[in-house]
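Human: Not sure, check this?
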Amino acid sequence: MWLDSLPTTCRGAGTEAPDGAALTDESDSVATFLDGCAQRCIKTPYRYLEALQDLLPIENSEVDAPSPLLMTVLEQFASKLAGTLLTPSDALAIAGFVRRLVLKLASRQRDLAFLRIFSAKVDGAAMPENLFSQYSSVTAAIRREMSIMHKCLSHFQEVHGHSDLGASSEVQAFLTKVEGVPLRVCSVCLSSQ
């Protein structure tokens, strides 16, 4: 999922946002950022494991916790934004990567409590006051990434919340019957209908 979330956009030299911010290659920005995060996580993994435990909801101890590297990404994204250590282009590339990663993780988890908390922390780090006031287009694009992440997580939560509701006994019986039919027989049954 981490590799699938990497950016695929290749920008040419001299590319600019409408507000004049230089836009560099997203792949290089994210790879450099992730390399630094991985090195930090390997050097002090216990620190990020503790941060991961602190972020997990106590009432839901069965939640599948993702890698402590995720906590490193959160910490470094927040600190680099607060310290103005990222270019507008790098911040946008990383925000897009984080959004894609969170949504890929959400598609594989039944309980989204951790990801909702994590995304709120990322959103807090990417508030407009931590972004680039002189580059309104890039700031708006980063905020849009955060908005997309929240809306998609809400959609996933609705889907997960309604997946077991409203199914009639007939539907449940049919699903149980279909689940018990071997795949070869099932494809023959479907072709005859």
